[in-house]
Please model this.
Amino acid sequence: MMTTPPPNRPALDMADNDLSLQDRHQAGVLVITLLLFVACAFSAVRDSRRVDWPLNVEPANVGRVLSGVDPNTASWSDLLLLPGIGESRAKSIVAYRHQAGTTSGDDGVAFHCSGDLRRIKGIGGKTVRRLQPCLRFDDDGGY
Model:
């Protein structure tokens, strides 16, 4: 027994109904894809403005870090305040400083600029760039 649709509603055959579901599915996938794209773009913009600063600095030490740490005179515990510098690297900086200070001859200063820290094993260009805002050099003020 076949029923006829009410006069104000047209009859849909099965092919039209499937196409409608398929279109809604594709639209949903497109919306989700666009939302993911916007979220990734927002994240990339936010991260590009992020300042890579040590998050574990005690409030009492913030002033010391902001005024700059001189790697030629700082203790290894003061060097720990710098971003990316752990105990091992801090002790390596102090050891290098003592060795270079006794063998350098004329001025006895191991580090004249932040680039000189590349001489320490484990410190490369990326670390030096991260450290630059936190360093000072009392001998000539160079970076």
